[in-house]
Amino acid sequence: MRRILILAVGSAGDVYPFIVIGQALRARGMEVTLMATANFRERVERAGLHFVSGLSQEELDASVMDPDLWHPVRGFATIWKHMARHLPTAYAQQLTLVKQKPTLIVASTLGLTGRLLQEAHGVPLVTVHLAPSCFLTAHDTSVRRGLVWPRSLPRPVVRLVLGMVERLMLDPVVRPAINRLRATLGLAPVRHVMSRWLHSPQQVICAFPAWFAAPQPDWPPNTVCTGFPRMPAADGQLDPALQRFIDAGAAPLVVTPGSAMAHGGGFIGRALDAASSLDLRVVVVTPYREQLPAVLPPSVHHAAYAPFDLLSRQAAAFVHHGGIGTSATVLAAGKPQLIVPFAFDQPDNAARLRRLGVAATVLPNAPLRAWVQALSYLLNDTQVALACRTLAYAMALETPAAEQIAQIIARQAE
Predict the structure, then answer these.
(1) Distance CA 208, CA 375 (A)
(2) Which is it for the CA torsion 22, 26, 28, 31, positive or negative?
(3) Buried (b) or exposed (e) across 205-223, using 16+ Cβ within 10 A?
(4) What is the pLDDT of residues 247-298, one digit of tens each?
(5) Residues 6 or more apart from 200 whose CB is under 8 A from it?
């Protein structure tokens, strides 16, 4: 079986790792098609992969502009609301593709149509999780916004609470749409969608290293950890205007709320105020220019896009939302991170980075003095600098994660 269909659901940090995985599979002689939202077409095709649009730009814009998308409580239901209406169409589109020739599906966490195709038509499936919060585990339990698990809490209690969260909050959101589609396919209803069903019984790959989140006894038994797959910049250089700004002074602070955050004006404003208090130059990266003040001081430069693997090497530190893609890229560059988590996997990623000694965390609405203190600590503490250098060195010695993941997928495709 030489054809791979990748289902990459999410924003840039969710899709870019699958592009580099697709390139590694293509280098092994496989035909690779990647399905994502329409805005990724150019980057996917530039990488030499076939592209299929799973969502139009207009549909994507509608979800990004939803103010509840990044709400710490309502965010999951919001993203599912936008996904659920497209499930039948996406399933039919993917079924057409897999009927053309034998295909193995590689699906991200929310690529649930791949799991349906596996059950209904026997299509082989590999599930790839980019962040450890995808597991509802009673061991090393993920941090949620406003919910930090005491280490002394007995595991039966944690398991009971997680079961209640799934039964009362998660399953009621995802089960209706999943089971309606299952009924049309002649499949029985399913429960425990997020804790059990979404994981492929064939192979689950964690696209993060064990030192970031070690495998736990209640993870699926067919799970393996690899590393962070990171997509390098296409042309190896920054935008000339951005490079001129960097070259004109001290290494800047990089501030980004994420590529899909259209409501981050408060976050950016607080970061700029904190940087000003410390007399730091700033690069703000966001495609939504309206989130910034109309007139920027000479010490601030805006970029709609910048390849973080290049930018991070020239930065003093990053202030960001805690997305796994940004976190991994800054880790590899050996730079400290101030994490301001909004929702989803971000609080847990922030907690893990903090435990590794390379990051500090503040909430979006924390007082300015907390931001200033956290930034000053990150930029001046020698132990933080040492931890950043140590992890960056260790990551540089690892076999590229995309190669590790491609090798595992190729074995399943034999």
Answers:
(1) 26
(2) positive
(3) bbbbbeebbebeebbeeeb
(4) 999 999 999 998 877 788 899 999 999 999 999 999 999 999 999 998 999 9
(5) 107, 114, 115, 118, 125, 126, 127, 222
CA-to-CA distance for 134 and 252, rounded, in angstroms? 33
Question: How far is the first Cα of the chain from the last one, in angstroms, to the nearest whole number?
Answer: 6
Give burial (CB, 10 Å; 0-12/13-18/19+) of 31.
middle
Residue 147's pLDDT band, with cuts at 50, 70 and 90, is low
Decide: 45 and 51 in contact? Cβ < 8 Å.
yes
Cα distances (angstroms) measured from residue 21 to each of 103, 161, 302, 312: 16, 36, 30, 22
At 37 the three-state DSSP class reads strand
> Which helix (H) or strand (E) covers residue 203, if one does?
strand 203-206
Instruction: For the domain made up of 240-397, give the CATH fold.
Output: Rossmann fold (3.40.50)
Give the other-Cβ count within 10 Å of 203's Cβ. 21
The string of DSSP letters for 115-150 reads HHHHHHH---EEEEESSGGGS--SSSPPPBTTB---
pLDDT above 60 for 70: yes
Residue type at 327? S
Strand partners, 85: none
Same fold, 3-227+400-413 and 240-397: yes
Q: Where are the domains of the chain?
A: 3-227+400-413, 240-397
Contacts of 289 (CB under 8 A, 6+ apart): 302, 304
319: enclosing H helix or E strand: strand 317-320
Q: What kind of architecture, by CATH, is found in domain 3-227+400-413? A: 3-Layer(aba) Sandwich (3.40)
Dihedral angle, C-alpha 27, 28, 29, 30, nearest 10 °:
-100
The three-state secondary structure class of 227 is coil
